[in-house]
Write a structure and sequence with these properties.
By secondary structure, the chain is an alpha/beta fold. About 50% of the residues lie in helices and about 10% in strands. The protein has a 5-stranded parallel beta sheet, with helices on both faces. The mean pLDDT is about 90.
């Protein structure tokens, strides 16, 4: 089994400390343990960091940043190519421009050649319409298939 490169969006990281959703929090904590053990290679972006820093709940923000300090990750820069792909997500009707940060998450994952995006944003990202659209755009830009999954998919794969 080869090591997958995964992009963590802000919602995934946020669920490490989401006591109102214990099932999802447990899933993310299980995935985090696998990440800490080197099962997955992780990528985040400055968009993730900006969104985390914008959290007005300082205690939660500190917990999430502390968790990030426990793992190794690469940072995908927001380049001109990233903006080009993000705009392609909008132009092709995958997501509206008002969700441009989600488009940037997608584009950073694509340009970093990630195998999947881990998210708990079921409204905009983890749904069949977005997944199909993102795969098409990734292929259009010559970067192959990319999936969008919640943590449970990777937990099941990581313990096989």
């Amino acid at each position: 089994m080869s090591k997958l490169k995964i992009y963590l969006d802000t919602s995934a990281i946020g669920y490490l400390d989401e006591i109102t959703s214990p099932k999802e929090m447990e899933e993310m904590q299980s995935l985090w343990a696998l990440i800490k053990n080197g099962v997955y290679s992780v990528v985040i972006s400055p968009v993730v960091m900006d969104e985390l820093m914008a959290n007005l709940n300082i205690a939660k923000r500190d917990i999430l940043l502390s968790n990030l300090g426990q793992i190794e990750y690469a940072i995908s820069e927001v380049t001109e190519d990233v903006h080009k792909i993000a705009k392609s997500v909008v132009i092709n009707g995958v997501l509206p421009e008002k969700n441009y940060n989600d488009c940037l998450h997608i584009a950073c994952a694509i340009t970093s050649r990630c195998d999947c995006i881990v998210s708990y944003n079921f409204k905009h990202l983890v749904n069949i319409q977005t997944i199909k659209g993102v795969r098409a755009i990734s292929n259009l830009h010559g970067n192959g298939n990319i999936d969008i999954v919640s943590a449970i998919t990777l937990i099941q794969r990581g313990v096989e």
